[in-house]
Design brief:
The chain is of the alpha+beta class. It contains five helices and eleven strands. The strands form four sheets. The chain has a four-stranded antiparallel beta sheet with strand order 2-9-5-7, covered by helices on one side. The protein has a three-stranded mixed beta sheet with strand order 4-3-8, with no helix packed on it. It has a two-stranded antiparallel sheet with strand order 1-11. It is extended and about 70 Å long.
Length: 271
């Protein structure tokens, strides 16, 4: 228990009906781990396999297709990933640590091979729900465990031999499954709304381009029905009343108040 009396082996929020204490497990307990090795010699733009390497990992913990492909050879055959495998990136090209330790979940057989600086984990499906492990290992607080063990300056890295001893609290597989499904649904909703957001951004961009006349024109390409008049030209200073307050409010004279009723707009408040 912590100082407040809370049991650290039990989450604050959980599904109804689950009361058992979570058990501590090491990262290496999750399944069989295999280190990636260099397969650059097998790269071919017409290759049948997608390659997972450092650049394949994103800050959203989803696969980024770099367009790198590899042939089917004896070398790549041993690096072929199966559905349900997890891969963890052990290097980060930046010092930020935003990529290192992130995990990808392989969703298709015979599609991906993994390159050097990536660790493959073949989960023990009898004890672990792979969807849960994916969410667990990518959770910010859990990734922090990996980041704290990293080394390097401009590029940081971790050794599997070190991080494999990292401890995690794990529930039974039934509760794992329910947690994994919940977060998978949330991820799907986030993706859906992100796509809607991106479409709206593009629509707005197109309308901004079409609903204002070009520099040498007086009528926009698109306008609301019923409006036919030519737009008039005005100078910028005619559009507003300019006011400038000399100097900056003096905090020493109590001109700033946390609960003041008038907001103060500073340069850094604008985008």
């Amino acid at each position: 228990m912590d100082k407040s009396g809370n049991n650290k082996s039990i989450p604050r929020i959980r599904f109804a009906g689950f009361t058992d204490t979570w058990e501590q497990r090491k990262l290496c307990d999750f399944g069989i781990a295999t280190s990636g090795t260099s397969i650059e010699s097998e790269f071919n733009e017409d290759g049948i396999y997608k390659v997972i390497s450092i650049g394949s990992y994103s800050e959203s913990s989803t696969y980024t297709d770099q367009g790198i492909r590899a042939d089917h050879t004896d070398k790549t055959k041993s690096k072929l990933l199966n559905k349900g495998d997890l891969t963890m990136v052990l290097n980060d090209k930046t010092a930020s640590g935003r990529i290192i330790g992130r995990v990808l979940l392989i969703e298709n057989d015979n599609t991906f091979v993994f390159n050097q600086r990536t660790q493959r984990i073949q989960p023990n499906f009898d004890k672990y729900d792979v969807g849960y492990l994916y969410q667990l290992l990518n959770a910010p607080a859990m990734r922090e465990k990996i980041i704290k063990q990293s080394q390097g300056n401009t590029q940081i890295y971790v050794n599997w031999s070190t991080i494999k001893e990292t401890n995690y609290n794990i529930p039974d597989i039934v509760e794992q499954s329910k947690i994994g499904i919940l977060f998978n649904r949330l991820d799907s909703l986030i993706t859906l709304h992100q796509r809607k957001h991106d479409k709206l951004v593009n629509v707005k961009k197109a309308l901004l381009d079409k609903m204002f006349p070009k520099n040498d024109q007086t009528i926009p390409e698109i306008r609301f029905r019923g409006f036919t008049d030519t737009w008039e030209q005005h100078k910028f200073y005619e559009l507003y009343t300019f006011a400038s307050e000399g100097g900056t409010p003096n905090t020493n004279n109590n001109e700033f108040y946390e609960d003041g009723s008038i907001p103060f707009v500073k340069i850094e408040d604008t985008e």
